[in-house]
Design brief:
Layout lengths: L9 H8 L8 E3 L2 E8 L2 E9 L7 E3 L9 H13 L32 E5 L4 E6 L1 H6 L5 E4 H16 L3 H43 L5 H32 L9
Antiparallel strand pairs: 1-4, 2-3, 5-6, 6-7
Helix pairs in contact: 2-6, 4-5, 5-6
């Protein structure tokens, strides 16, 4: 048997971490086909991922896994709240203490710089890590925000003089309002998730236990609703930690 060694890719790592086979489980029916009407004709598309908990078959302890099922579920929650593309995702580069988050690009590869926080109290650092995540190559650069942020901030204030103080106060007020609004929306999402979990529990409790097919489906829906509650709670906690300047682990 021979092996072909290739550079580590970010997408490959994530696909492994999201695969229940890694946790000793067998899964089937993780994707579905969808039909939509386009120009008056039915068009089918395949490969649409189904939410975790709605798969057709999931057999835990099917074989020896690298991690246990509890750790697998915790990994999914952490990955979910660190994903840009999904609602509730919290990552550096969207708010936070760094002045230039999401505005800088790498002078070597042209990719956008991300922000990470280190230490207690936390200090922001800009880094170009896309090429490291995608192709396992060395990062282009990493540097602290302690020099560049004050320098840029000074230039900004100079440009808006004599209204610099008023502008800074207004920017701070808007920033705080944005944080409060974000927390309020996430709290509403959590309330909705808890309501849906309670509703799913009542439906499961009211189901005739002799009707095993319906009972099994209602139980899956209940479990899925509970996992959404956990995801919303984790996202809200992480958002509050970031806004308070508390460093957290960087997972996805």
């Amino acid at each position: 048997m021979s092996f072909d060694w290739v550079p580590l890719r970010y997408r490959s790592v994530i696909s492994i971490l999201k695969n229940p086979f890694y946790a000793g489980a067998y899964a089937y029916g993780k994707s579905e086909k969808r039909t939509e009407i386009v120009d008056g004709r039915a068009r089918k598309s395949y490969g649409h991922g189904k939410p975790f908990g709605t798969w057709e078959v999931l057999l835990q302890d099917h074989h020896e896994g690298y991690i246990d099922w509890g750790e697998f579920e915790r990994n999914q929650s952490l990955i979910a709240v660190n994903t840009f593309a999904k609602k509730g995702g919290i990552k550096s580069g969207r708010g936070g203490q760094a002045l230039l988050a999401g505005l800088l690009t790498c002078g070597r590869c042209g990719r956008r710089l991300s922000v990470s926080y280190r230490g207690r109290p936390s200090h922001p650092y800009y880094q170009c890590k896309s090429i490291n995540q995608m192709l396992a190559k060395p990062r282009c650069m990493t540097f602290g925000a302690s020099r560049i942020d004050p320098a840029i901030g000074k230039e900004i204030l100079s440009a808006v003089t004599p209204m610099a103080i008023e502008a800074a106060m207004e920017a701070d007020r808007v920033h705080r309002d944005n944080l409060e609004e974000r927390h309020r929306m996430m709290e509403l999402d959590l309330q909705q998730a808890r309501y849906e979990a309670s509703l799913a529990e009542r439906r499961y409790a009211a189901c005739d236990p002799d009707n095993r097919l319906i009972a099994a489906q209602l139980e899956k829906s209940w479990e899925s609703a509970l996992r959404r509650v956990e995801t919303c709670e984790a996202a809200l906690t992480q958002a509050r930690q970031i806004d308070a300047g508390i460093p957290i682990p960087d997972f996805a």
